[in-house]
Design brief:
Blueprint lengths: L10 E2 L5 E4 L2 E4 L6 E2 L11 E4 L20 H12 L6 E4 L5 H4 L5 H12 L2 E3 L5 E3 L2 H20 L5 E4 L21 H12 L5 E5 L6 H6 L6 E8 L21 E6 L5 H19 L3 E6 L16 H17 L4 E5 L5 H16 L13 H9 L6
Parallel strand pairs: 5-6, 5-9, 9-14, 10-11, 10-13, 11-12, 13-14
Antiparallel strand pairs: 1-4, 2-3, 7-8
Helix pairs in contact: 1-9, 4-5, 7-8, 7-10, 8-9
C-alpha cells in the first residue's frame, strides 16, 4: 500500500484547537484536531434515483409485522417532495440485467430468486420474504445503483442517492438473507471496475448491521476498501474488528463493531480518525455508501444513539475526503425502519453530500477508536 502524500493529508487548525464532542466544544492544550481539505468541486446537482416498484415489494403479505415496509420509501419521498427535492435531479431507475446481477452473484442464485417470485413468492429464511413483484423491485434496486455509478463515473454529477428497496448489503454470492436479495452496492462497484475503468473503490457501510455480503464478496480483493461501522452483537453476527480480509485483500476490510448505546462521539470518531485516513491513503476513484439509518436512536431494531445531524456530519466528512481525491460519491439506501426517522435522515444526508457545510472535527473517543486503530494501523497510516 502506498503512503499518504503529506500535502494531501489532514491539516491542523491554525488557532486554538477545539474538539467537538456530543456535549459541546472544549479546547485541548497542546493538541490540534484534524480537518480535511475543503476544495469541494460540484459538477451539478445530486442525482436522486428511485422507482415505483420499490413500493410494490411488501414482505408483510407473508409476515404481517415485518419492518421492511413500503412506507419507508413513501416517508422519504414525502419529505423530499416537501423540500422541493432539495434541488436534486430525479431519475427513474432502470432494471438491472441478469448479466449485471451475475457480476457478483451466482447464476443459480439469480434463477432461484426469479423463479420463486414468478411462482408467487415465499419465505427464503426467517427474516426474508418475497412476493410476485419482489423480483422486479430487486432488479430496479440493483439497476439504480448501477445507473448511479455510470452517471458518477461519466461526470454527470458529483454525488447521487439511490432510494430504492429491497436493500442489498447482506446478500452474498449465492445467498439471499437479511431482507436482501441482490447486493446492490457490490454490483455497482463491480460494474464500475469491470466496465467503467475504475481501479479503486471505497465502500463505506454505516448501516447498524454488518454488511456481511459486501464484505465476503470483496474479502480477497485489493481494489475495494470495505469499511463497516455496526453495532456489536446484532444480526448477522459477523464483522469482528480482527477480520481485516484475507489473501490479497488482507487489510482492505475495516470492521468497526461499536457497543450498544454508542452515539456520534463514537461513530464520527472512528470515521474521522480511522476509516477516512485509511481511505485517503487508499485514494479511491469512486466512493459508495451503504446508507442505512438504523443506528438512529429511534430505530426499533438497534440500540445506538445517532441523530439525523449525526448522519449529516458523517456525510460531510466523507464528502470532504472524497473531494480531496476528486472522487464522486454515491449512496444506496440500506436499512432504517422508522419511517419518521428516514424522513429526517435521508434529506439531511442528501443536503450534506450535495452541500458545502463543513465537517466538524471530533475528539477520538477513548475506547473504540483506539482499539480499532490498533488493528487497522497494521495496514494503514493513522
Amino acid at each position: 500500500m502506498s503512503r499518504r502524500p503529506a500535502a494531501i493529508g489532514p491539516q491542523p487548525l491554525p488557532e486554538k484547537p477545539q474538539w467537538r464532542t456530543a456535549r459541546g466544544w472544549r479546547t485541548l492544550q497542546g493538541r490540534r484536531p484534524l480537518v480535511w481539505p475543503t476544495f469541494f468541486l460540484r459538477a451539478g446537482c445530486l442525482l436522486y434515483l428511485h422507482h415505483r416498484s420499490s413500493l410494490e415489494h411488501d414482505p408483510r403479505v407473508l409476515s404481517p409485522d415485518h419492518p421492511d415496509a413500503p412506507e419507508r420509501v413513501q416517508a422519504i419521498e414525502a419529505a423530499m417532495r416537501g423540500q422541493g427535492w432539495l434541488g436534486c435531479e430525479l431519475r427513474d431507475a432502470p432494471a438491472a440485467t441478469e448479466r449485471e446481477l451475475e457480476l457478483v452473484h451466482a447464476a443459480e442464485h439469480v434463477t432461484r430468486i426469479r423463479e420463486l417470485c414468478a411462482a408467487g413468492g415465499g419465505q427464503i429464511d426467517a427474516d426474508t420474504f418475497v412476493g410476485e413483484t419482489s423480483y422486479t423491485a430487486a432488479l430496479h434496486a440493483a439497476g439504480a445503483a448501477c445507473a448511479m455509478a455510470r452517471a458518477l463515473v461519466r461526470g454527470e454529477a458529483r454525488s447521487g442517492f439511490s432510494v430504492t428497496r429491497p436493500a442489498g448489503h447482506h446478500a452474498e454470492h449465492e445467498r439471499a438473507m437479511g431482507f436482501c436479495m441482490f447486493n446492490n452496492v457490490a454490483i455497482a462497484a463491480e460494474l464500475a471496475i469491470r466496465e467503467l475503468g475504475i481501479e479503486k473503490i471505497l465502500i463505506l457501510d454505516w448501516d447498524v448491521h454488518h454488511g456481511n455480503g459486501t464484505a465476503e464478496i470483496f474479502r480477497r480483493r485489493a481494489d475495494v476498501l470495505f469499511a463497516s461501522i455496526h453495532q456489536l452483537g446484532l444480526f448477522p453476527g459477523t464483522g469482528a474488528v480482527s477480520d481485516a480480509g484475507s489473501g490479497k485483500g488482507l487489510g482492505y476490510t475495516i470492521n468497526v463493531p461499536v457497543p450498544r448505546g454508542s452515539d456520534e462521539e463514537v461513530w464520527i470518531s472512528v470515521l474521522e480518525h480511522v476509516i477516512l485516513p485509511s481511505a485517503l491513503e487508499f485514494r479511491p476513484q469512486l466512493v459508495l455508501i451503504s446508507a442505512g439509518f438504523d443506528a438512529h436512536r429511534d430505530d426499533p431494531l438497534a440500540d445506538c444513539q445517532l441523530e439525523a445531524s449525526s448522519f449529516a456530519q458523517m456525510a460531510c466528512h466523507v464528502r470532504e475526503m472524497a473531494s480531496s481525491v476528486n472522487a464522486p460519491i454515491g449512496a444506496v439506501l440500506e436499512g432504517g425502519y422508522n419511517p419518521r426517522v428516514l424522513a429526517e435522515c435521508v434529506p439531511a444526508t442528501i443536503a450534506a453530500l450535495d452541500g458545502t457545510m463543513p465537517a466538524e472535527s471530533i475528539a477520538p473517543d477513548p475506547l473504540v477508536t483506539s482499539r480499532v486503530a490498533a488493528h487497522v494501523g497494521h495496514y494503514w497510516t493513522l
